[in-house]
Amino acid sequence: MLLEELIRDFQINVTDEPATKYVMTGPFELIATMADGTKYLYDKLTETYRILPRDSHTLTDEEIKREFTIRFRKMMKDRWMTQKELSQLTGISEQTINKYTNGTGFPTIVNLDRICKALGCSADDFRYL
User: Fold this and answer.
1) pTM for this predicted structure
2) Which of 38, 39, 76, 97 could covalently link to 81 via disulfide, CB atoms 3.0 to 4.6 Å apart?
3) Using an 8 Å Cβ cutoff, are 84 and 91 in contact?
4) How many other C-beta atoms are found inside a 10 Å radius of the C-beta of residue 34?
């Protein structure tokens, strides 16, 4: 998908107010920075959007956990990975994986490493930078 198509879809589905900056963060994702500094993350595949935190250095523990949960679920979905499959690949129980996907649990550094290896990503992919 081209940047121009994502911008058009963003303007149709979120706001027709022009952004000061658009950045593609994936083949179907766009971050739009508005004049007031608000940043929207638009996902064309799900036609959903959310407002991103303004500053990664001032996130609360809850915001960090929420960001992890959102990104974790998206990575699993993007890779067509079920909780059961991830559990089998990592040795982490399905119950624990479920806690990570619903936001009631947060992985240890060891489990995060196992998840990163299984999903083919880095720990930074779970953080808001």
Assistant:
1) 0.70
2) 76
3) no
4) 15
Name the token pair of 47.
């036609």
Residue holding tokens 């000061």? 20
What is the average per-residue pLDDT within 88-117?
Answer: 97
Give the number of other Cβ atoms within 10 Å of residue 44's Cβ: 18
Chain segment 13-62, per-residue pLDDT in tens: 899 888 999 999 878 889 999 999 999 989 888 788 888 877 777 788 88
Phi/psi of residue 110, each to 5°? -65, -45
The answer to whether 6 and 22 have CB atoms below 8 angstroms apart is yes
Whether residue 106 has pLDDT greater than 90: yes
Reduced 3-state DSSP string for the chain? CCHHHHHHHHHHHCCCCCCCEEEEEECCEEEEECCCCCEEEEECCCCEEEECCCCHHHCCHHHHHHHHHHHHHHHHHHCCCCHHHHHHHHCCCHHHHHHHHHCCCCCCHHHHHHHHHHHCCCHHHHCCC
Q: What is the pLDDT of residue 7?
A: 92
